[in-house]
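Why Serine/threonine protein kinase? Reviewers of the renewal asked for a concrete example.
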Amino acid sequence: MVDIRQIYETGRLFDGHYRLLKPLSTAGGSADVWLAADVNTVDGDLDVDKATKVAIKIYRPRNIIDMEGEFQFRNEFRKVFSCHHENIIQPTYFSIFQETPYLVMPYCPAGSSENLIGRIKDSEGLWKYICQVASGLAYLHEHVPQIIHQDIKPANVLIDDNGNYAITDFGISAEMGGMDAGSEDESGGTFAYMAPERFVEGTPPMPESDIWAFGATIYEMISGDVPFGNEGGRVQDRDTAVPPLGQDVPESIRQLVCSCLSYDPASRPTARGIVDMVMKRRYSKNRKLAAIISAVAVCVSVILVVIFASGHASDVEENFSSMCGRGDALVAAEADAIARNGGVPDLSCITGLEQAVVLYHNACNDVPKNFKGREAVLHKVE
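Here is what the prediction returned.
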């Protein structure tokens, strides 16, 4: 029988080639997650700093498995291993060491979205989170065979190196939890994010329950609190209203959260439906943006044509210089704004860069090709 003290020890070499560096998560009911260095990726074990860093999920002693359990574990891993999507974190390896199963996953230094609870203040940031998490869920729900996550929550949404969101801890966690369903995590979920039907004995896993958990996750990301406290859907009934979100939250997001948290599973949207809704919203917004840019371009072109047709070359030169100067100012202001915003442009309106491109482009189109300074401005546009 395995001695747990021999496994959970910082600095220990686990299963021959994973040097345990520090625990990343020890709060789960069925497993602990460690940051480890894969010493097989460097020439010598002593050069740990240069070794590839991974996250290892080691299941706890009560999940020590027999031959039948090992067969189930390997089958579940093969199902998960077939998943490939930008918004899920796919395990890269699995094995069983001293009767204890474990998974190896990519390490995300930025951590989980739990660190961002209550901190995503702009609507575009919320829509990004909603779309990417829903996209990962839609992939799992549409996978053949279907995968129900059963434990969607901020801690199970990781942030990758590009600042995008990806779901982790899917598939195998619920199966392992089901081997000893004595507490909330061990039942394949966390009470605060569990839908009402999950507290009814005999209810099979279903995508609609993941959507309820998704709604509770979005609610918490916005407000800082879960909608129904630590008991989750256990205390919700048909007449229980979803606690209101702040008035500064866009109505479309509030409606989405409420629909996800519907008591009746049939009233909740699908993950694919959520993604489609977000994409339609983005398409509509982009069309409005394009229309505004087009209108600005037409107006600028008309003004330049009128000025040029008047025969006042000095006026043309003056307006060309003025327009390019305004473009330069917009570029400088936008660069400063992006820097203040952490390197992210503000998508809620036409950016200064887009206005500058319009000004540069039309200024060059409406003067002769040999006009002084025209070539330099074209290089700016490129």
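Residues 271-309 form the longest helix (39 residues). This is the kind of structural detail the renewal will allow us to pursue systematically.
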